[in-house]
Amino acid sequence: MKKFFTVLVIFITQIAQAQETVADFDGNIYNTVTIGNQVWLKENLKSLHYSDGEAIPDVVKYNDSDSLGEIYGCLYTWDAAMRNSTSQGAQGIAPEGWHIPTDAEWKEMENYLGGASVAGGKMKTAGTSQWNSPNTAATNSSGFSALPAGEYDGFYTPHIFRLLNEYAVFWTSTQVTLTKARERYLSYESEESSIYDWYKVMKYSIRCIKDAPTSLDDNIFIPEESGLEQNYPNPFNPSTKIKFSVGQICNLSCTGIHTTLKIYNSLGAEITTLVNEIKSPGTYEVEWDASGFASGIYLCKMECGNFRTSKKMILLR
Questions:
Q1: DSSP string spanning 66-101?
Q2: Distance CA 292, CA 131 (A)
Q3: Residue environment code for 260-289, b if the CB has 16+ CB neighbours within 10 A, otherwise e
């Protein structure tokens, strides 16, 4: 189930940073990449369990090899990946706060990268250490870092692993018929990102996309009832309080929310983390003690789901 939530940010001088890694139930750590307005995993999923600990059925590693699984991730049937849901955007095997991308979400990424006819080259890792030659037009300029994990053919007999180093094949969460769903595939001999509708018993790679909030309020204000010292507008000296609340709507769980606040200097270098990985609804307050920092301009950034905001802070002594 997708998570829907509201985020209310109150800067008394404020806030935040993008989540850089994601963990699944098994403890696998994944890097993330922002492409346009979307946040994707940079690696293929390796999960053997759903986010609540239940074992994923029918999951395999290429040639049943742990070493290949470590590089290329696991391969899943559509039903297993979707956890038997047929709803587009289902969480399925994705970590909390993430879901299986829809056909429309893939199209959004492709369009951002210049269209499906050239997007594949911008998504593939460059070189021929993993992709077969010629790995046409591969630049990985998007940071998506697609690898040719191949597939497990669960439709034709005999059932075999094939296409390693030749094709990257990903399930979408878009069902086409009762027995078929939509996939995306990238080829070593093409720069396209291609669509194919094929049987759900095939086992393909999974890339997850972060849930997007449906309602956000990022107005910057200090309510009278907050009782907080107002350090906004700038400048401030020598500390600032940051109050923010993570709420929920539609009576849905918010346990998958990750809220992060970080401070950067004027050169863009991260200098401190104020909050990392708040996962439950509520109102929170933190204070940045800037007594150890020189006068100047700082940036406080916040991320909660796909919501990002930042505030310039001027420190005077």
A1: HHHHHHH-EEB-HHHHHTT--STT--TTSPTTEEPP
A2: 49
A3: bbbbbeeeeeeebebbeebeeeeeeeeebe
By three-state DSSP, how is residue 123 classified? helix
Q: What is the DSSP letter of 236?
A: B
Residue 223's pLDDT is 33
Inter-axis angle of helices 116-123 and 103-112, nearest 10: 80
**Cα separation of 120 and 88, whole Å?**
23
Q: Residue 291: which region, alpha, beta or left (left: phi > 0; alpha: psi -120 to 50)?
A: alpha
CB 221 within 8 A of CB 143: no
| Sequence-ordered list of residues with C-beta below 8 angstroms from that of 268, at least 6 positions apart, any chain | 299
Backbone angles phi, psi at 276, to 5 degrees: -140, 120
The per-residue pLDDT for range 161-188, each reduced to its tens digit, is 999 999 999 999 999 999 999 999 999 9
Max Cα–Cα distance, the chain, nearest Å: 75
Residues in the chain: 317
Q: Nearest 10 degrees: CA dihedral of 99, 51, 17, 171? A: -30
Contact of 237 with 293, CB cutoff 8 Å: no
283 — alpha (psi -120 to 50), left (phi > 0) or beta?
beta
Positions of the chain with pLDDT lower than 50, given as ranges: 1-19, 214-233, 248-256
Q: Of 209, 310, 220, 313, nearest to 261 (Cα)?
A: 310
What is the per-residue pLDDT for 209?
94
Token pair, residue 257, equals 């929310």
Neighbours of 230 (CB within 10 A): 12
Please, which residues have CB within 8 angstroms of residue 287's CB and are 6 or more apart in sequence?
A: 239, 240, 241, 242
- State the Cα torsion 164-88-209-24 to the nearest 10°: -80
